[in-house]
Write a structure and sequence with these properties.
It is built from 2 helices and no strands. By secondary structure, it is mainly alpha-helical. The radius of gyration is 16 Å and the shape is elongated.
Length: 44
């Protein structure tokens, strides 16, 4: 396996892990905070 392929694979695993962690935090957030968070994203 080439170094580049390995690096891309690691990068994808890293992003995937971050998404899972973010989703867990998001699921545990109170609804009020979720609303503020979504509104902030829509405004920016």
């Amino acid at each position: 396996m080439k170094i580049v392929q390995l690096a891309i694979l690691c990068f994808f695993f890293f992003i995937f892990g971050l998404l899972i962690i973010c989703k867990q935090y998001y699921d545990e957030m109170p609804t009020r905070i979720k609303g503020c968070f979504i509104n902030g994203l829509l405004r920016s």
